[in-house]
Write a structure and sequence with these properties.
Largest sheet: 8 strands, antiparallel, barrel
Number of strands: 9
CATH superfamily: Lipid/polyisoprenoid-binding, YceI-like
Structural class: alpha+beta
CATH architecture: Beta Barrel
Number of helices: 2
CATH class: Mainly Beta
Strand content: over 45%
Strand order of the largest sheet: 2-3-4-5-6-7-8-9
């Protein structure tokens, strides 16, 4: 009789635990999402956009716990130049000097750890970024706003391109570049919008 009661109690605890643990996978709306980029050189800077190819958020209840997204490298665009000048810059960024888009058409980020920063929706995110088949761990702060019923994640990230074998014009690989030096660090602004 005691063993029956014990088994019933264990079953009840398991059911209650399952009922209050809800894992939710939310796809990213690629049409509503966008990434901005900004790169820097001795003589100035350039900026642009790039599209999200696919991705998802993973929730445990109301808390973000994981997710990933792919970047469509073929969609690199420049927003601070026009016409021929923009075309030349974008063509160079897509070439083997930089991101080798023909060989490496996507880049990917996958979350490995999420820690709350105390305020609802504010997180410290750790994950693996893959560019040109090189994977490095990065960390950044992110905010996820669920006020409209659709998650909108925003973050500002600084990437060191030398970590991903992107060498052109880098003082980390070449000497005496002078005012032709292109700085290793570039910025990404994320806006990832979930689906309902």
């Amino acid at each position: 009789m005691k063993s029956v009661r014990f088994f019933t109690l264990l079953t009840l605890f398991a059911f209650v635990g399952f009922a209050f643990t809800t894992t939710l996978n939310v796809a990213i709306d690629t049409a509503a999402s966008q990434i901005t980029w900004k790169g820097y050189k001795v003589t100035g800077e350039h900026a642009g956009t790039i599209a999200v190819k696919n991705g998802n958020f993973i929730y445990d209840g109301a808390a973000l716990t994981g997710g990933s997204f792919e970047i469509d490298m073929a969609t690199i665009a420049c927003t601070d130049l026009q016409g021929e000048y923009a075309g030349k810059l974008v063509g160079h960024l897509k070439s083997d000097d930089f991101f080798g888009v023909a060989t490496y058409p996507t880049a990917k980020f996958e979350i490995t750890k999420v820690v709350s920063r105390g305020k609802p929706g504010d997180y410290k995110v750790t994950g693996n970024l893959t560019i040109k088949e090189t994977t490095k761990e990065i960390r950044f702060n992110a905010n996820v706003d669920n006020s409209t019923g659709v998650p909108v994640a925003t973050a500002a990230i600084t990437i060191d391109r030398s970590d991903f074998n992107v060498k052109y014009g880098s003082g980390s690989f070449f000497d005496n570049l002078g005012d032709k030096t292109i700085y290793d660090e570039f910025d990404l602004g994320l806006k990832l919008v979930g689906t309902k």
